[in-house]
Amino acid sequence: MPSTSVGKYNYYFRNFAKLIPIRVHFYMDSQDLQRLKNKYDIIGNDAALNRALETAITIAPTDLTVLVTGESGVGKENIPKIIHQNSSRKTGKYFAVNCGAIPEGTIDSELFGHEKGAFTGAIETRKGYFQEANGGTLFLDEIAELPLPSQAKLLRVLQSGEFIKVGSAKVEKTDVRVIAATNTDLLHAVGQGKFRADLYYRLNTIEIRMPALRERKEDIYLFFRKFSSDFSEKYGMGKVNLTNDAIDLLINYRWPGNIRQLKNVAETVTALESERLTPVSGRCEVNAATLSQYMPKEEVNLLPAVSTENNGGSMSGSDKEMLIKAILDLKRDVEALKAKVNDLTVLPPHTEEPDDQDPNGPNLGNEIRKVVDIKPEVPDEPEEDQKGLSIQDFKKNSIIKALKKHDGNRTKAAKEVGIAERTLYRYLKKYNLD
Asked: Pick from 15, 97, 131, 386: CA 20 to 30 A from residue 223's CA?
């Protein structure tokens, strides 16, 4: 029987997996846990982080499909590596595929391969990741970006290990463990019809959630010191120390970009402030006022923060992104509507009224103007004084002027005022202009 603690866990899991519920949680002692963190360069002592790492070690010996969740920049990519390298597949290949970075038209070819001549540019037969990773592990990052047709093919591989190359009719087999990751709410995507429900439940056999950086306040300063120290050593710069007020500012910031964003700030502060060394310590002291100049301003704070969770009244990053996108889409729609209304005349130019439109009916352009309160641009007033005329008189005069301009040519006159020729005939009859 293996002597190491992790080895014992794996041994017992392999031999008694059928007797142990899937959600069982093995406890790793602090030394084993710290060795694991050192091996994968993981920083922090947060309980949620430790739980995620322990779960990864627990299920590594199995072939269970794993879904890693968490916001962008929290370090989800470490979990698949830990699982693969502590599994019986560690001698097999490991591939990490970003589903959001592959064009929709080529994603099937990348995952499942293609035959020669299957499409333009397919000059030779090519293996896909599922074939290349046979006997190993495939990490599918940003799984929510996978197109629906590709989701159906992925589901088939997960259920039966079968796939078909693009341009082929031959069913092939593979033995691959799939680990997926996402920074979006897949269940919400299922409700919107953007993600298959059966695939979601197939992927979500085991879920490992990586906590956001703002949930790990005690780890934030540790990250800053690590990133700052590594940067100063790499480029021969002075060490940076934060004052107590700067540390408070650091740990109370929301860090929507999580660890990736904090690393950028730490390296920027070190690069630009490290020359101002104190004579005694040989280190640079950075206070809150100085640090605040490098902290990204969160424009989303201008938006109302609505949340049902007990997180200080702030929304999650994904919720804010969705809200901002909705507002931007609404703004674009309003701008497009304004542009169309600004182009309207009393009789809209270059548009045809429906044949069954009643000349006496409501004017859509006028109704829209009432809603958005925008004055339309109208063509220059006729030579006659039109200031006291009704809309009906203005229509009539516009038609008369157009007919005079084109010597009675009704086709050209209709085009001039922006209506269909059949509609012009109705107006002529209505205004007794025959």
From this structure: 97
Phi, psi of 60 (to 5 degrees): -55, -40
- 159 close to 152: Cβ distance less than 8 angstroms: no
The structure's pTM equals 0.63
CA distances from 188 to 200, 239, 376, 430 (A): 11, 45, 42, 56
Can you give the pLDDT of all 434 residues of the chain as single tens digits?
444 444 444 444 444 333 333 444 456 788 999 999 999 999 999 999 999 999 999 999 999 999 999 999 999 999 999 999 999 999 999 999 999 999 988 999 999 999 998 888 888 999 999 999 999 999 999 999 999 999 999 999 999 999 999 999 999 999 999 999 999 999 999 999 999 999 999 999 999 999 999 999 999 999 999 999 999 899 888 889 999 999 999 999 999 999 999 999 999 999 998 776 655 556 788 999 999 999 988 654 444 433 333 444 444 444 445 555 556 556 667 666 766 666 654 444 444 444 444 444 445 445 444 444 444 444 444 444 444 456 667 678 888 888 888 888 888 888 887 788 778 878 887 877 76
Q: Which long-range contacts (CB under 8 A, 24 or more apart) does 275-278 make?
A: 275/237, 275/238, 277/238
Q: For the stretch 195-217, what's the b/e string if a residue is b when 16 or more beta carbons lie within 10 angstroms of its beta carbon?
A: bbeebbebbeebebbbbbbbbbe
Could you give the residue ranges of the DSSP H alpha helices within 17-92? 30-39, 47-59, 78-85
Residue 35 neighbours by CB distance under 10 Å: 13
